[in-house]
């Protein structure tokens, strides 16, 4: 079973009322909390449908972006790495997540360097390597520290680059199976996925690049029919989830959960 696409557990966090103050690259409107909660519930129900245990953490009003739990940690079969987010307002979110990971993993390590910044949204784990995109939120020191921490667990890290103006590496890509990546053309054109099969999202549907393969389903944001059909044509079972409100805060499918099988 693929450790990069099949999981027994997921951690999510309820959206906080303060999310209307969440970070965003471009202001496209204030998120509707009730609609976001509705979408979030559908997301959790879909994860559970695959047989996974989903741990729902309570909202954290002090951290408007805390629904996006993926940025707080990297969860691998051998252990978890607590991140050090590059947005100052989000630093406390990682500390809030750490005890929940320690309850599930025997090995939990942390990015601690004062100059190190790294967020889970910039990390794509495949069966053969861990790709980490340099971005406004993830720097060289953070990537170097992660590389040292995961080496004893047998993982290798390859640094790549997030396209200019794109928040996170995984804003523009996701893993569909051990050998297949869904990507925007602007990212795949860089050659960073050499050796993988690449499915490019349809022109104008770049926001569909952030999906998650979770057990036998590919969860994708609703409203991108050409990309949905391309994923289905490649043999994957898709499930569309509303994401209009999280998208106003640069959030996608992967941002909303930590997915793992603890050792």
Task: Describe what you observe in this structure.
With 263 residues, the protein is α/β, with parallel strands linked by helices. 22% of the residues lie in helices and 23% in strands. The strands form 5 sheets. It has a 3-stranded mixed sheet, covered by helices on one side. A 3-stranded mixed sheet has the order 3-4-5, with helices on both faces. A 3-stranded mixed sheet has the order 6-7-8, with helices on one face. The longest helix has 17 residues, at 33-49. It is globular. The mean pLDDT is 95.
The H/E string reads EHEEEHEEEHEEEHEEEHEHE
First-residue to last-residue Cα separation: 14 Å
**In DSSP terms, counting alpha (H) and pi (I) runs of 4 or more, how many helices?**
6
What is the number of strand segments?
15
Give the class from helix and strand content and strand pairing: alpha/beta
Strand content is: 15-25%
Global geometry: globular
Mean pLDDT over the full residue set: 95
The helix fraction, in percent, is 10-25%
Describe the largest sheet. Answer: 3 strands, mixed
Question: In which order are the strands of the major sheet placed?
Answer: 2-1-15
Give me the oligomer status. Answer: single chain
Residue stretches low in confidence (pLDDT < 50, at least 5 long) are: none
Radius of gyration: 17 Å
Descriptors for this entry?
about 260 residues; three-stranded mixed sheet
Quick overview of this protein structure:
22% of the residues lie in helices and 23% in strands. The protein has helices spanning 33-49, 91-102, 140-150, 185-188, 225-233, 244-247, and strands at 9-13, 53-57, 73-75, 80-82, 108-110, 123-125, 130-134, 157-161, 173-177, 180-183, 197-200, 212-214, 217-221, 238-241, 258-260.
């Amino acid at each position: 079973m693929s450790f990069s696409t099949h999981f027994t557990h997921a951690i999510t966090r309820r959206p906080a009322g303060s999310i209307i103050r969440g970070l965003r690259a471009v202001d496209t409107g204030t998120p509707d909390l009730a609609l976001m909660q509705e979408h979030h519930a559908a997301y959790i129900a879909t994860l559970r449908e695959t047989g996974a245990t989903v741990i729902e953490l309570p909202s954290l009003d002090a951290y408007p972006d805390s629904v996006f739990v993926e940025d707080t940690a990297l969860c691998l079969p051998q252990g978890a790495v607590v991140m050090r987010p590059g947005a100052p307002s989000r630093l406390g979110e990682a500390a809030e997540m750490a005890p929940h990971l320690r309850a599930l993993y025997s090995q939990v390590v942390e990015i601690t360097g004062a100059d190190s910044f790294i967020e889970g949204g910039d990390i794509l784990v495949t069966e053969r390597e861990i790709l980490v995109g340099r971005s406004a939120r993830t720097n060289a020191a953070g990537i170097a520290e992660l590389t040292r921490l995961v080496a004893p667990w047998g993982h290798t890290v390859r640094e790549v680059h997030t396209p200019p103006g794109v928040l996170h590496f995984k804003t523009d890509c996701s893993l569909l199976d051990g050998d297949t990546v869904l990507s925007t053309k602007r990212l795949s054109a860089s050659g960073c996925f050499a050796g993988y099969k690449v499915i490019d999202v349809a022109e104008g549907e770049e926001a569909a690049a952030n999906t998650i393969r979770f057990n036998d389903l590919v969860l994708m944001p609703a409203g991108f029919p050409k990309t949905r059909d391309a994923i289905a044509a490649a043999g994957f079972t898709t499930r569309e989830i509303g994401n209009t409100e999280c998208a106003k805060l640069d959030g996608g499918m992967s941002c909303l959960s930590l997915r793992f099988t603890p050792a």
